[in-house]
Amino acid sequence: MKKNKTTHLMAGIYIIIFVAVFLVLTGRFMYIQATGEIDGVSLNEWADQKRTSSYSISAERGKIFDKNGMTLAYDRPTYRMYAILDEAYSEKSEEPLHVENPQKTAETLAPLLDVEVNEILEPLQNGMDSELFQVEFGKVGKELSQQKKDEISDLDIPGINFEEEAIRYYPNGMFASHIIGFARETEVETEEGYKNEIIGIAGMENEMNDLLSGKDGFISYQRDRYNNTLLDPSEVIQAPEDGDDVYLTIDQKIQTLLEDVLTQVDEEYEPSKMNAVVMDAKTGQVLAMSSRPSYDPNNPANVENWYNDIISNPFEPGSTVKMFTWAAAIEEGVYDGSEGFKSGSFQPNEQVKKIHDHNGGNGWGIISYDEGFQRSSNVAAAKLVWEKMGTETFLEYLQAFDFDEKTNIDLPGEVAGEILYNWPLEKITTSFGQGSTMTPIQQMKAATAIANDGQMMQPYVIDKIVDSSTGDIMEQKSPNVVGEPISKETSDQVLKLLESVVNGEHGTGKIYQLDDYSVGGKSGTAEIPNPEGGGYLNGRENYVFSFLGMAPIEDPELIMYVSVQQPKLKPTETGSVPLSFIFKNVVENGLHYLNIDPDKDEIETVEQITMPQVIGEKSTDVKEMLTEQDMKVSLIGNGEEIVSTSAIEGETVLPSDRIILVTDEPTMPNIIGWSLRDVMKLTDLMSFKIETFGNGYVITQSIEVDAPIKENDYLGIELSPPDESTNEDEENSEETEDTIDESSSETE
């Protein structure tokens, strides 16, 4: 009886516990069903999150163009390889979609990627051991070209897949590198975590990064565990906003011309530095700008100098400053060019060190101030400041020319020079370019006042900003007058003085004469401070040789500054030899290219050719006609009809320009020896996907000669400098025939 009571009691207790647990569980289930939440987490939202795949859609970075629409920087598609390892990924497929045999996969991929088998096998094996869904291959599997991706895809290797990703590409290689700069994929922190994004590192890529970058979009949809889209995927798409395009004032043809001659001088004279800039005298637009050392933004390794010296490296400029000293004296009304003075040396008082002319202080006896300018007399400059104007008046003109402030050119990293004006000697030496410092771009800005009727123009390199999706111009730059330090009458008189330096009987710049255009300018020979102690470096080559010139001198269209530091000169050469080679080639050809009429009498006219209508014409007849006009013609294919050409009807071309004619049956030409710019013409016409290696002229091509070609074909080329290539079309370097006697050398 006692046992029975105990049994009933325990049974009752268990029933109560069971009922309590049942009520709790049932209540919990009913609560979850009613609220759809567990611990404050919505089950619907959690399920949606688990079913939803979301992918970022990268915005395309804006392109950078030259002023005529030639592409200078753009996002080039490349491919990243990855491998699926999870067997479940192949469950619903008749063919395997994951890596089944890692050893065979590695042995197949390794020779295609030019790596050891272990470099492929190791990440595959480690991923399998760790039961990972997929693995990548690090640097080995990144930035694969379209051609390489196609080679691997054609093998149908199970589990090997690709994802497209962009890299920043610069089709011209080492071209205006300090202006364009470069951008690289960089890991950045966002609200969703870290992601890789192309970020501007230097130059315009950095300065305009926010405009160029754009805004990424995304796509999200619901899928099952096999990544198959559900019937009702709740798809959401946010389109990306591509970056804006930036058009520079740089002219690709003039810039290429400048790059070519700088490379030639760099190879022949091995200077420690070179700088050159070409500007439109009327507008302040920078048409070309380059420095050495430079770099290829596609592979910016071992860069010797990140800074754009033209805007960021102030130095003592030497005698190029004398044009502004004479301009100040003329504007102030104290200049009489026919007045005589005693050259050789000048000492204002016993407390001030003697000033000497550059011929050892011997001078040329009593000469006029006009002749003093031709001969680049330091004494003449000193006397104009000390005796004619007064030092404080001269300082006002230096400030009116903005030598004490930045030009505010639209490039990053500008540094202004400094006017040293504390002691009497500093006030005098500033008149002929010693002591005080300035940048080449400051001198160019000031020179626009002389070239442009007294109006000083703002230098700029950004022409316009364009919405890449609509083509609408968002911002358009225009010429900006930022000062009038001198009058038109003064500028006219200074132009005549500058012309006398190049053409006058006693001028120091005869070597800068052009064949077809009158030139004016002023040379400079700046001393280099000794980095290991006080004073300056010694030796005939230890100078910064420079020239600031303009042409045609009666009404200048182009202004050019060029400097060469510490060139290795031949015993018979002066620093003007490499300078003149650069200046003459760029300015002479640049003026012809811009269709500026020659202004010299009895000149041998450089033939310019207007491109006729050739589209639809018979290919053999067109080639024969253009060849008879001494044009360099490349016929693409053996078709009977011309369907496209690199020069449009009515365009003016020079005989040195390559004219590419595409027929209706295009085949690959032999491009060995072509320059990169000629290859880019062909690329634009055929819409090739191009990949370049090196700089200079083509030495190998991936498409065989006479092979049929079509749009979107891949073309890989390797280039080498002229002295390493087998370029049959390469023009011989022009040897200067000018000779310089002792009186035309200049050293201050």
From TrEMBL:
Pfam families: PASTA, PBP_dimer, Transpeptidase. The chain crosses the membrane at residues 12-31. InterPro entries: Beta-lactam/transpept (IPR050515), Beta-lactam/transpept-like (IPR012338), PASTA_dom (IPR005543), PBP_dimer (IPR005311), PBP_dimer_sf (IPR036138), PCN-bd_Tpept (IPR001460). It catalyses: Preferential cleavage: (Ac)2-L-Lys-D-Ala-|-D-Ala. Also transpeptidation of peptidyl-alanyl moieties that are N-acyl substituents of D-alanine. Residues 714-748 are annotated as: Disordered. PROSITE patterns: PASTA. It comes from the Bacteria. Pathway: Cell wall biogenesis; peptidoglycan biosynthesis. Its EC number is 3.4.16.4. Belongs to the transpeptidase family. PANTHER family: PENICILLIN-BINDING PROTEIN 2B, PEPTIDOGLYCAN D,D-TRANSPEPTIDASE. This is serine-type D-Ala-D-Ala carboxypeptidase. It comes from Oceanobacillus longus.
